[in-house]
Design a protein that fits this description.
- The chain is mainly β.
- It has one domain.
- The protein contains one helix and nine strands; from the N terminus they run E-E-E-E-H-E-E-E-E-E.
- The two termini are 20 Å apart.
Length: 116
């Protein structure tokens, strides 16, 4: 299933939206996505910078392999992050180089994002 996943700051989990309808279909702690694209909407980011208040403008699109409440082991080691006050796109945490696509993405219950 094609989905868009974003960090839900109010519920401290990942919100999963149906890619076609845009409706939230689940809230989970762990997500595995294939054929992923990292999306940051410039207008939404600009609004965050202007208002100093977060909104849903950044998410990861992909095919959901699994949605779960439990997973014991992090399958990947390269961490990705996004901070609207520092970056215009998602970046590799270590190098701060932009990333726009990945074959596989893993999102965990700590709000961390990893790629293969």
């Amino acid at each position: 299933m094609k989905v868009e996943v974003y960090k839900n700051l109010h519920k401290n989990c990942w919100s999963v939206r149906d890619n076609k309808t845009g409706k939230v279909i689940d809230h989970v702690n762990y997500v595995h996505l294939d054929d992923a694209t990292f999306v940051v909407r410039p207008a939404g980011r600009a609004k965050v910078l202007q208002e100093k208040r977060k909104n849903v403008h950044a998410f990861i699109k992909g095919t959901a392999s699994f949605l779960s409440e439990h997973l014991d082991k992090v399958p990947y080691s390269t961490q990705i992050c996004y901070d609207p006050y520092k970056y215009e796109s998602f970046v590799y945490a270590e190098s701060e180089e932009p990333i726009f696509k990945a074959d596989t993405v893993y999102l965990n219950n700590k709000g961390e994002v990893y790629v293969n």
